[in-house]
Structure formats: structure tokens, C-alpha cells
């Protein structure tokens, strides 16, 4: 499984899509990737953030308009069809709590709740999210009051670098709701879709146990 | 990722019409979006079928089960009828991917998933499955996870689906809907061995829609289960796996359904193992002797010779788990 982070975010230096010569397969893919992660009309397009050639390519790439609710706030956006839910959240709505680890479903750093269920935002096309209710790490706390699992991660010291933590917490919230907390082994298995390169697994299990009231 | 247009359909009629125009179906998207991002797939039109009414699990008249193509892996695994009638299916699903992915992915998409061969996923490598005629980088490359059964000169990639191993063992049928109406294929005929055309992976006509997978009725009681062996304990594809279902009456094995995963270019049904079991009394010696036949015809590559013995042991252990010590 690939674990290399994919270059992302506004990368204006990438080759312009229309060159004097036909693009090779590789440059075309690279270009597509850059465009796919940077483009949203209705918020970003026309604000001068994109260099002209990319904006032109963006305007010509098929895009769609959709409304979704993120952490209780309704947004109407126009997205290039290639945009993932993760990039919509991070690049366009400014919600950078959800992390991009692998961009391939293989690490869980991008885990969010969609209509109450945990899923990988990197493999979710934003265009499919019409009417969806999305919860990210930014939407868990109630004002200054941390969610019980956020507090448990602090109490149990369940992270080091913290990169996997937002995904771990959203996944843990769902794991508790699903009732897969009867034993440490069961928690470990049902949390296995979230990789922690710092190896905080035992403490993550403890945190989930604590928030589930089993500790 | 190449640009694509996106449409959502709400009836199978509209889906087939869009499919006929060359549209590519998307269900959970966990295979398709991934491979589009890798540059392996580049459909011009994506047809979102998630709104179709194909999301039901129901028992058939004689004790079989019909699982709609759009039932998620999570829903199928948790369904009381699936758990009660065919634990091997629930177990294969719960040992697949992650809880997040199982919420998104569907049964139809799962049996359509493509190989995890790293050369297939790497658009700079030679791969006859991705780019027919370009060669196979895995044959003489790093092939520790590749197939020991069913390979051809053109391709040695394994089929990665776990639940397909259970479906193959139980001789499931795939229900299809196309412009000319409905048809059914046995699971053995649905997934294709690579031969000289590894790019053809399923016996699906262009634009055909999978509507359901049906498990036939089997004599009861039926004990069944799935064992998966891998490099880490969870969230990993199989090195070897075994799906086993046994019907024992009067102390005699009357029916045996056995298939292996992680070893074949398609889920590998094991008729020689089944034949060895039928008519016999369960015993550790029997499990061992039957499992020896699991690797019949295996042709290991440079780095996966270990799979031959691992497969035999995986099958033996799962026969004992399902059939008991006697
Ligand atoms: C990190 C990771 C780990 C994984 N681990 C495992 C594992 O351990 N075991 C395992 O079995 N799987 C595993 N998978 C694979 C996963 O199970 C599949 O990606 C998933 O089941 C595909 O289903 P989907 O609904 O998302 O398919 P999609 O991506 O939507 O579709 C896949 C293909 O099927 C076609 N299709 C979908 N539905 C239909 C239909 N009804 N009719 C006709 N064509 C259709 C699509 O056009 C597409 O070509 C893993 C995946 C990832 C990303
Ligand atoms: S970023 Fe790794 S699973 Fe989504
Ligand atoms: S805390 Fe560093 S990856 Fe988990």
C-alpha cells in the first residue's frame, strides 16, 4: 500500500495544462493532481489566488455545485469533480484538522463522520456529498468543553506528534457509538483503520476505553 | 486525476442507459477513486449508482441468501441473517480493510475490486493488466505477495478480495442486469483467470450492472468460518486465507465447501480438498491429509515459495477450527 504523502495544496509551479507541445502521460497526471486539489469556484476562483492558466483549466474542468453541512454549518460550494471531501475541507473550507497521510484509504488520518458514520475523506468525492452532514475534529467540542474522547486522549497521553490524532478521535467516537469496546482487543481491531506512526496504540486503546466508560 | 463528468442515477434503467453510453459506475468509490488518483483508471464519465434500490439482504425461499450489490460491507457483515446462516461471509468481511472503508465499500464493488499488485498500481511499471502488451514486471520482480496458482506468462497478480473467497467456496451466483435483461453467472465463471488477456478480469459485458450476489441453500446444520493470515494482524491483505463450510450429520462429513485466498489469480476453489473430506469422519488426521491437497498444482515464484506450506497449514487450521477435534 502506498504511504507516500502526495504533494498537495496550491502548487502554482506545476506545469500549465496547455503547453505548446502535447503533455506526456506523466506531466498530464501531475498537472491533473495539482488542479484537482486546488480548484473551487464560488470561493476561491476569481479571488486571484490562482495563476491565470490554472484558473482557465479549472473553469474548463467539469465541476458541480453542492450543499453540505459541516459541523452544523451549511456550505454551498462549486467543486471540480475530482476534489475529494478531504481537500474540500482542508483547502476550501479551511478546516485543516482532518489530515492527509496517504490519500489512498490506507492510514485513516482523514477519518471524518458522514451522516454519523466514519469514513475516509480522501476516497470520498466531494461531489457525492450533496445533503450530507459531516463532522470533523473541529466540530466535536461543545464550546470550551472538550468531547469526552478528546479529553481522554489528553488524560491518557495518547499521542506524540499528533498527526494521526484527529482521525483517531473521529474513528474512536464512531467505534464507541458502534459498541465495539467490549475488550482492549476488540477496540484495537476496530481502531485498526487508523495508523499511528508514533506507535501510541496502547494509550489510544486506553483513551477509547476511558471515553466509553470502561476504565 | 483526469477530469470527468459526474451524474447520479436513481433507477436501474437510467443507470443502464448511462452505462451504455460508456459511463463508469461508482458505488463506494474505494477502489475507483484510489485507482483514478494513481492514474491507473481514467473514466470520462462517472455514474453514481449509490441511490439505486439494490441495498437489501434477504433470505431466499429454500434457505439461501440474496445480498444486494449496494449493501455496504459493514451492513452485510452485521446483518443477522448473514451472521446466522453464513458466518464465513461475516468473518471474511470483518477481516477486510478497515471499519471506515467497510462503511463506504459495497458488495458489488468488492467483487469488482482490482489487484493490489504494486506494479499494476505504478503507472511507470510494465503491467499487462493495466497496459496490455507492456510485459509483467512482477514475474521477475518483487513477487512475495503474488499468485502461486492460476497465473499465466502474462500475469501473476492475486485477486485481493476476502469475501470473494467465501463466495467462491459457497458457489455463489452473481445477478447481472444489462440492456438485454437479467442473467446469472456462477462465481467461478464471473471472475476470469488472466490467461493471455489479464486486462479482462470479470465476465461482465460493458455497461452491465451487478444487482446482487446470491448464496445457494446448503444442508443444515452448516458450520463455517474464515481464516486470514497476513503480515500484520489487521488492515492488511491476505498472504493466505481459507473459507470453509462443513455439513456433518451422523458423524460423517456430507458436504464440504473450501476455497483459498491470497494465493490465486482468482479466489481458489479447492475441489480436491473437498472430495477428500466428503464421506469421512472428522479427525485431525483427516484435516491434515485433506489440507495437503490445497497446494496441488502450485507454481511458486522467486519470492513466494513460502506460500505453498503456509496455504496447506492455513487450510488445515481452518478445517480443524470449523470441523472440530475428533
Ligand atoms: C487501504 C485498503 C485496504 C483494503 N483491504 C481490503 C481487504 O483486506 N480485503 C478486501 O477484500 N478488500 C480490501 N480493500 C478493498 C475494498 O474492499 C474495495 O475497495 C471495495 O470493496 C470496493 O467496493 P466499492 O463499493 O468501494 O467499489 P467502487 O470503487 O465504487 O467500484 C469498484 C469497481 O466496481 C465497479 N462497480 C461497483 N459497483 C458495481 C455494480 N453494482 N455493478 C457493476 N459494476 C460495479 C465500478 O465501476 C468500479 O470499476 C481495501 C481497500 C483499501 C483502500
Ligand atoms: S489520508 Fe490516509 S486514509 Fe485518507
Ligand atoms: S501520534 Fe504521531 S502518528 Fe500518531
From TrEMBL, chain A:
GO terms for molecular function: 2 iron, 2 sulfur cluster binding; metal ion binding; oxidoreductase activity, acting on the aldehyde or oxo group of donors. Residues 1-10 have a biased composition (Pro residues). This is (2Fe-2S)-binding protein. Residues 1-24 are annotated as: Disordered. Residues 11-24 have a biased composition (Low complexity). Pathway: Alkaloid degradation; nicotine degradation. Pfam families: Fer2, Fer2_2. Keywords: 2Fe-2S, Iron, Iron-sulfur, Metal-binding, Oxidoreductase. Residues 64-140 form the 2Fe-2S ferredoxin-type domain. It comes from the Bacteria. It comes from Streptomyces acidicola.
UniProtKB/TrEMBL annotation, chain B:
One of its GO terms (molecular function) is oxidoreductase activity. SMART domains: CO_deh_flav_C. It holds the Pfam family CO_deh_flav_C. Keywords: Oxidoreductase. InterPro entries: CO_DH_flav_C, CO_DH_flav_C_dom_sf, Diverse_Substr_Oxidored, FAD-bd_PCMH, FAD-bd_PCMH-like_sf, FAD-bd_PCMH_sub1, FAD-bd_PCMH_sub2, Mopterin_DH_FAD-bd. PROSITE patterns: FAD_PCMH. Residues 1-220 form the FAD-binding PCMH-type domain. PANTHER family: OXIDOREDUCTASE, XANTHINE DEHYDROGENASE SUBUNIT C-RELATED. This is Xanthine dehydrogenase family protein subunit M. It comes from Streptomyces acidicola.
Amino acid at each position: 500500500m502506498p504511504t507516500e504523502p502526495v504533494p498537495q495544496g496550491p502548487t502554482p509551479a506545476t506545469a500549465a495544462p496547455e503547453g505548446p507541445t502535447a503533455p506526456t502521460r506523466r506531466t498530464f497526471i501531475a498537472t491533473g493532481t495539482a488542479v484537482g486539489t486546488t480548484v473551487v469556484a464560488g470561493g476561491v476562483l476569481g479571488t486571484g489566488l490562482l495563476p491565470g492558466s490554472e484558473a482557465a483549466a479549472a473553469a474548463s474542468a467539469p465541476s458541480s455545485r453542492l450543499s453540505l453541512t459541516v459541523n452544523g454549518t451549511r456550505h454551498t460550494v462549486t467543486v471540480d469533480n475530482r476534489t475529494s471531501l478531504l481537500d474540500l475541507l482542508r483547502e476550501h473550507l479551511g478546516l485543516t484538522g482532518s489530515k492527509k497521510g496517504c490519500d489512498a484509504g490506507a492510514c485513516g488520518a482523514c477519518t471524518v463522520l458522514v451522516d454519523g458514520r466514519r469514513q475516509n475523506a480522501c476516497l470520498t468525492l466531494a461531489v457525492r456529498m450533496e445533503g450530507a452532514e459531516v463532522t470533523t475534529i473541529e466540530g466535536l467540542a461543545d464550546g470550551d468543553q472538550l468531547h469526552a474522547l478528546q479529553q481522554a486522549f489528553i488524560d491518557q497521553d495518547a499521542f506524540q506528534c499528533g498527526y494521526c490524532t484527529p482521525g483517531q478521535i473521529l474513528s474512536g467516537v464512531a467505534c464507541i457509538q458502534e459498541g465495539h469496546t467490549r475488550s482492549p482487543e476488540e477496540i484495537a481491531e476496530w481502531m485498526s483503520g487508523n495508523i499511528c506512526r508514533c506507535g501510541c496504540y496502547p494509550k489510544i486503546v486506553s483513551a477509547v476505553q476511558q471515553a466509553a466508560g470502561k476504565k | 486525476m483526469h477530469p470527468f463528468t459526474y451524474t447520479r442515477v436513481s433507477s436501474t434503467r437510467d443507470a443502464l442507459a448511462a452505462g451504455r453510453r460508456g459511463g463508469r459506475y461508482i458505488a463506494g468509490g474505494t477502489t475507483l477513486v484510489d485507482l483514478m488518483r494513481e492514474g491507473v483508471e481514467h473514466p470520462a464519465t462517472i455514474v453514481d449508482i449509490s441511490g439505486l434500490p439494490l441495498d437489501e439482504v434477504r433470505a431466499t425461499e429454500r434457505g439461501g441468501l440474496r445480498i444486494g450489490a449496494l449493501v455496504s460491507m459493514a451492513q452485510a457483515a452485521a446483518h443477522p441473517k448473514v451472521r446466522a446462516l453464513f458466518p464465513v461471509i461475516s468473518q471474511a468481511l470483518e477481516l477486510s480493510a478497515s471499519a471506515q472503508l467497510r462503511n463506504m465499500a459495497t458488495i458489488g464493488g468488492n467483487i469488482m475490486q482490482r489487484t493490489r499488485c504494486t506494479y499494476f498500481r505504478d503507472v511507470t511499471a510494465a503491467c499487462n493488466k493495466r497496459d496490455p502488451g507492456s510485459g509483467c514486471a512482477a514475474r521477475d520482480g518483487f513477487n512475495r505477495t503474488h499468485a502461486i496458482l492460476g497465473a499465466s506468462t502474462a500475469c501473476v497478480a492475486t485477486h485481493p478480495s476476502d469475501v470473494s473467497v467465501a463466495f467462491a467456496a459457497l458457489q455463489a451466483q452473481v445477478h447481472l442486469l444489462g440492456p438485454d435483461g437479467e442473467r446469472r453467472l456462477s462465481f467461478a465463471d464471473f471472475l476470469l483467470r488472466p490467461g493471455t488477456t489479464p486486462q479482462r478480469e470479470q465476465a461482465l459485458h460493458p455497461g452491465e450492472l451487478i444487482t446482487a450476489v446470491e448464496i445457494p441453500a446448503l444442508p443444515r446444520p452448516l458450520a463455517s468460518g474464515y481464516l486470514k493470515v497476513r503480515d500484520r494482524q489487521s488492515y492488511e491483505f491476505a498472504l493466505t486465507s481459507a473459507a470453509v463450510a462443513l455439513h456433518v450429520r451422523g458423524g460423517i462429513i456430507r458436504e464440504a465447501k473450501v476455497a483459498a485466498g491470497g494465493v490465486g489469480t482468482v479466489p481458489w476453489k479447492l475441489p480436491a480438498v473437498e472430495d477428500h473430506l466428503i464421506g469421512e469422519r472428522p479427525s485431525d488426521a483427516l484435516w491434515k491429509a485433506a489440507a495437503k491437497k490445497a497446494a496441488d498444482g502450485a507454481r511458486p515464484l522467486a519470492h513466494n515459495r513460502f506460500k505453498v506450506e503456509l496455504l496447506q497449514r492455513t487450510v488445515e487450521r481452518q478445517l480443524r477450527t470449523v470441523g472440530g477435534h475428533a
